[in-house]
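User: I've been trying to design a sequence by hand for this structure and keep getting stuck. Would you show me what you'd pick, starting by listing the structure so we're on the same page?

Assistant: Good idea, let's start from the same input. This is the structure you sent:
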């Protein structure tokens, strides 16, 4: 089925408008939409005769949320099951992951490895429901690094069989792989500068690649007017990646004062993905079968990381106060957070010291800036009509956004995905 056409004119009326800019909320506002775009916003907008009216009185009207770090494609956590699943089965199961993501209010997302150009096109053309995708296709890794699926049995297990191998070593191989991924339609490049929680043969805090290898990825991406996002958890990999003039630091939990200085100087974006580890620990306590399905020592890594994260909170808060650019991202994947992306917001309040308004800005206009999209992230004339209507006031309690029942309208490009008003 092809993408349905948006109604010619829609007026969302009577709600309290939080437009994504950080300006004070506007009561009794109207958002007027024609086709897929907003044509007028404000308290004195006239509703044209014949327009469809959506009454948002007593509720809050927000821009659609932008998640700058998701993995929207499926693979079984249980490795035995993963090996029995066909690639087409995993592709089709991915549609449920993507649909849950838009259902919780995420209308645009950067996929950090897993989705290729087919997923992006299928969403854009309306064949499947999901957030508007920017894709990196594969998570580039050195041999034995975070994106290398090698296991001690002596083989590499394909996690997503539709992707090219993400493994490259040395400047020339990195250059070739980046060019290949860009040729295949990537909107940006994702590369790993440290190990990670789910990888079998590395530690989360070890440095991976060299500054020269990451620099060539940055140069090749820049030549195509693209940017580079870097997975980095430990401080050595963070420092090295920042030297290479990366666009965004993903995770970056163990930044230090020097890293903050460099990020401020270079304008590097930080996508902190704070909820992942504490929510993983909570999930393990409720579901003991989860640990039995892991290949890497995820439980050990997560306990270690969580203890160290709590010590980082004062530095994180200071970094935000000093002006480090923060964009909302969750690291949603088959492991965790599918359909619960907005749980990240309470951690940004508690651990980064951000106000609810600052968090909403980081998830809308700032996130749009991070991903290089000037057509989303704000409720203003000319932007795509990505609109949420929520029961309650998220400025009073950011956690209400986690309650699916409060989400009365999810609109993407002028088309309602959810509408219970």
């Amino acid at each position: 089925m092809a993408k349905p056409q948006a109604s010619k004119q829609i007026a969302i009326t009577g709600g309290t408008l939080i437009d994504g800019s950080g300006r004070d909320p506007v009561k009794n506002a109207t958002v007027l939409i024609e086709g897929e775009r907003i044509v007028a916003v404000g308290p004195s907008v006239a509703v044209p005769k014949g327009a469809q009216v959506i009454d948002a009185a007593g509720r809050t009207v927000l821009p659609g949320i932008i998640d700058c770090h998701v993995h929207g494609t499926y693979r079984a956590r249980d490795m035995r099951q993963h090996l029995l699943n066909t690639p087409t089965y995993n592709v089709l199961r991915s549609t449920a992951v993507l649909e849950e993501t838009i259902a919780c209010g995420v209308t645009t997302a950067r996929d950090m490895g897993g989705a290729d150009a087919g997923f992006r096109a299928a969403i854009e053309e309306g064949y499947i429901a999901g957030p508007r995708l920017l894709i990196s296709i594969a998570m580039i890794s050195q041999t034995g690094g975070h994106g290398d699926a090698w296991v001690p049995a002596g083989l590499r297990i394909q996690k997503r069989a539709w992707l090219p191998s993400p493994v490259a070593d040395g400047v020339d191989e990195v250059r070739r792989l980046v060019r290949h991924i860009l040729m295949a339609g990537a909107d940006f490049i994702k590369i790993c500068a440290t190990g990670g929680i789910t990888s079998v043969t590395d530690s989360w805090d070890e440095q991976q690649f060299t500054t020269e290898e990451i620099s060539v990825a940055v140069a090749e991406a820049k030549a195509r007017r693209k940017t580079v996002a870097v997975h980095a958890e430990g401080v050595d990999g963070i420092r090295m990646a920042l030297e290479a003039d990366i666009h965004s630091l993903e995770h970056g939990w163990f930044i230090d004062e020097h890293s903050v200085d460099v990020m401020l100087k270079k304008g590097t974006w930080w996508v902190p993905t704070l909820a992942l580890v504490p929510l993983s620990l909570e999930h393990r306590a409720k579901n003991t079968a989860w640990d039995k399905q892991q290949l890497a020592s995820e439980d050990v890594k997560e306990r270690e990381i969580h203890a160290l994260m709590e010590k980082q909170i004062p530095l994180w808060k200071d970094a935000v106060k000093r002006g480090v650019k923060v964009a909302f991202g969750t690291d949603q994947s088959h492991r965790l957070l599918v359909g619960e992306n907005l749980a990240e917001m309470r951690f940004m309040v508690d651990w980064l010291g951000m106000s609810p308004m600052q968090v909403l800005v980081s998830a809308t206009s700032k996130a749009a800036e991070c991903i290089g999209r000037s057509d989303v992230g704000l409720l203003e004339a000319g932007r795509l009509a990505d609109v949420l209507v929520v029961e309650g006031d998220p400025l009073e309690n950011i956690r209400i956004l986690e309650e699916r029942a409060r989400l009365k309208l999810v609109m993407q490009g002028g088309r309602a995905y959810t509408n219970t008003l």
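That's my pick for every position. To get oriented when you compare it with your attempt: Residues 112 and 225 are 18 Å apart (CA to CA). The domain at 65-371 is CATH 3.20.20.140 (TIM Barrel).
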